[in-house]
Design brief:
Belongs to the ABC transporter superfamily. It is a single chain. The protein is 35% helix and 27% strand. It has 10 helices and 10 strands. The two termini are 34 Å apart. The structure holds adenosine-5'-triphosphate (ATP) and magnesium ion.
Length: 233
């Protein structure tokens, strides 16, 4: 469904995404793991068409989207929950969700909102509350809900568990698993490796902009380097 073939790029002369080939098949949840500055966010930017310099081929479905401008890539069904969430703090939960459907230019059905509230019942309780007054975990739910309002076929999530308490990490990851069960393919960037491995089927570990290790969940969990570096065992 999403295929990157020898994708490289970066900022100015600096290369931070270095010859990366990865794929996410229809219906899969795949992890991008790696330490700070490994290039995870830059890889997401490359997929979205937002990395200032980028070469290689990016395919989505049967289309080569490498030269499709960023604002048109959402039309292909790619949505992103960015690093740091970026909810509109002065706006209500409901208005934040409605903004996610804005580019569709079709009427938002009650169904979209209901689906979102079924996924995150506490957003239903807080729909009139200003998003900026929610807890970090609840803001993450708004960010995910907002991305889903675009009715994507693939969701990219950049460190959705960052800064959250363990219980909230579990709740957010359970919601991501449910999103996947609803038929949406997921690419999940995570530093919380042990928790991420519970909900993905495969993963890639990035180091200095390159894929250092890749494999199924079981292969990653039994890889000595992954265990030492990311799982502390
Ligand atoms: N706008 C930018 N201009 C120049 N260099 C950048 C820019 N954004 C990121 N970088 C550099 O690119 C490298 C990779 O950064 P990136 O944000 O992709 O890493 P990351 O794996 O997402 O890290 P983190 O886990 O901290 O989010 C870093 O060395 C960073 O300093
Ligand atoms: Mg990042």
């Amino acid at each position: 469904m999403l295929k990157l073939h020898e994708v490289s790029g970066g900022y100015g002369r600096r290369t931070v995404v270095d010859d990366i080939s990865i794929r996410v098949d229809q219906g899969e949840t795949v992890a991008i793991l790696g330490a700070n500055t490994a290039g995870k966010t830059s890889l997401i930017r490359a997929i979205l068409g937002l990395l200032p310099r980028c070469s290689g081929r990016i395919e989505f479905g049967c289309e080569d989207i490498s030269s499709v401008p960023a604002h048109r890539r959402v039309d292909f069904g790619i949505a992103c929950v960015p690093e740091g969430r970026h909810v509109f703090s002065e706006m209500s939960v409901m208005d934040n969700l409605l903004i996610g459907a804005y580019h569709r230019r079709k009427d938002v059905t009650r169904q979209d909102i209901d689906d979102c509230f079924r996924l995150f019942p506490r957003l239903a309780e807080r729909q009139a509350q200003k998003a900026g007054t929610l807890s970090g975990g609840e803001q993450q739910m708004v960010a995910i809900g907002r991305a889903l309002m675009a009715r994507p076929s693939m969701l990219l999530l950049d460190e959705p568990s960052h800064g959250l308490a363990p219980l909230m990490v579990a709740e957010v990851h359970a919601a991501i698993a449910e999103v996947n069960r609803r038929g949406i393919s997921v690419l999940l960037v995570e530093q919380n490796v042990s928790s991420a491995l519970k909900i993905v089927s495969r993963g890639y570990v990035l180091e200095s902009g390159k894929v250092a290790v890749s494999g199924t969940t079981a292969e990653l969990a039994s890889n000595d380097d992954v265990r030492r570096t990311y799982l502390g065992i």
